[in-house]
Design brief:
The structure holds two protein chains of two kinds. Chain A is mainly alpha-helical. Chain A is built from eight helices and no strands. The chains are: A mainly alpha, B mainly alpha.
Chain lengths: ~220, ~220
């Protein structure tokens, strides 16, 4: 089998298991909606305030949703002894990493595709524009690139779910800053050129961490 | 031997830099006496970065060579790094308060990125102590050391771009530094750097001794 067919096989396995258990997408989606509702209570109903806090709340929500769903990426593998099985297979560690990235990315994008329109309705803001969607997809790739690496580490520690946010949040600070600023400008209707530098920063982060994580993932899951 | 030389070099440099900071260098016109903190703040900030560079190199060498000595080096440097990063985070606000009237200014990229760096150091220690086995903890910490180091320039870039939305802070105008101030700064940085290497060697040899004692105890049952 070629590299990509192995990768797709792993992604398919995850998607199939998600279809049967509905562990990640459904629960994280409910969590996301609850956070949006709580934010609205926390900040009140004044439209002026909402314009100011909307980009921030959007990214706090997505970062937390990312942590929740990425935490689940390796826990079932570990509990069922599936990771040992995967590692005994004649596939490279890199293929496991890329397959896991693709499945986590798929889950996150589904969650965001449902949450973004709801955000737009509840905040009464034009959030469903092409710029916001591009920013969301690019930032999510960055989240998943580092999150998958750290999730594989967190599952092998004593505190498990507690470890991922501690590792994940400081590293994604730059793309959270960039995503908040860029989506704030995009929601306000600024042209692409206004937030191009933020998009470049997110893109650079994605490329750098896809490469770095790809190179060191093998050291994380070896036994 | 190297430690003895370093001990005397750093001691001498420290004394000289204290003299330069408190006696030799003239008081800055606009900021007044507070500006002398600058000669402590810059070296601690520099050591925070230098330590993490050593952590990064040690981590890579450990993952590639699988030799414990590189992990000991990276771990020791991280311990010093978090001390100096904490110092930078304490000294920074002490400087900021009289100058800007606030302890913390989010518009200062160096302060903000130092804070993120501090959290990355913390993650380095947490993942090590929470790992199920010691060798696994060393591997995980090395991964954090590499990923964290690669992230630092991106954090610096993001916080600098972010600061563009806030009023610019006028702390580091190195081009406008008078020669006497520059000399004081350089000596101070050299003194702290010598101290860093002295402490690093000391910590590495302590860790080696700990490992030796442990293996002897295991032998003795």
């Amino acid at each position: 089998m070629s590299f990509w067919r192995k990768v797709i096989a792993i992604t398919e396995k995850d998607a199939l298991s998600e279809l049967r258990t509905r562990e990640i997408i459904f629960s994280v989606l409910v969590f996301t909606l609850l956070v949006i509702v709580i934010f609205n209570f926390a900040f009140g109903t004044s439209q002026q305030v909402i314009v100011l806090v909307a980009p921030g709340s959007l990214w706090v929500t997505f970062a937390f949703a990312g942590i929740l769903s990425l935490n689940r990426a390796f826990i079932p593998e570990k509990e069922q002894g599936c990771l040992e099985g995967l590692m005994a297979c004649p596939i490279s560690r890199e293929a496991i990493y890329v397959g896991k990235i693709l499945s986590s990315l798929l889950f996150m994008l589904i969650i965001e595709a449902i949450a973004l329109p709801i955000f737009a309705v509840l905040f009464n803001l034009p959030m469903l524009s092409l710029p916001v969607i591009v920013i969301t997809v690019l930032t999510t790739i960055g989240f998943v690139a580092v999150g998958t690496l750290f999730s594989a580490m967190a599952v092998n520690t004593k505190a498990r779910e507690m470890v991922l946010p501690i590792l994940f949040l400081p590293i994604v600070v730059p793309i959270i800053i960039a995503a908040v600023e860029a989506s704030g400008l995009a929601i306000a209707g600024a042209p692409w050129s206004k937030f191009a530098s933020w998009l470049q920063l997110i893109l650079a982060f994605d490329v750098i961490f896809l490469v770095v994580s790809f190179l060191i993932f093998a050291f994380v899951i070896e036994e | 031997m190297a430690r003895k030389i370093l001990l005397w070099v750093s001691l001498a440099l420290m004394v000289i830099s204290l003299y330069l900071v408190f006696v030799y260098v003239p008081t800055e016109k606009e900021m007044g006496i507070v500006q002398r903190i600058f000669y402590i703040m810059v070296p601690t900030g520099w050591l925070a970065m230098l330590s993490f560079t050593v952590v990064f190199l040690g981590s890579i060498l450990y993952l590639v060579r699988r030799d414990n000595k590189w992990d000991i080096l990276a771990h020791s440097s991280a311990e010093l790094g978090i001390v100096f990063t904490t110092l930078a985070l304490i000294v920074g606000p002490i400087w900021a308060k009289p100058i800007w009237g606030v302890w913390w200014d989010w518009g200062t990229p160096r302060l903000t990125s130092t804070l993120v760096l501090w959290f990355i150091y913390l993650a380095y220690f947490m993942v090590r102590s929470l790992a199920t086995e010691e060798s696994r903890g060393a591997r995980f910490a090395a991964v954090v050391g590499i990923v964290g180091f690669v992230d630092i320039p991106i954090i610096a870039l993001a916080t600098t771009l972010w600061q563009g939305m806030h009023p610019p802070a006028l702390i580091f105008q190195e081009s406008g530094l008078a020669p006497s101030m520059l000399l004081t700064l350089i000596v101070s940085i050299a003194a702290f750097t010598a101290l860093y290497f002295l402490l690093l060697l000391q910590r590495v040899s302590m860790k080696n001794a700990e490992i030796e004692i442990q293996s002897l105890q295991e032998l003795g049952g």
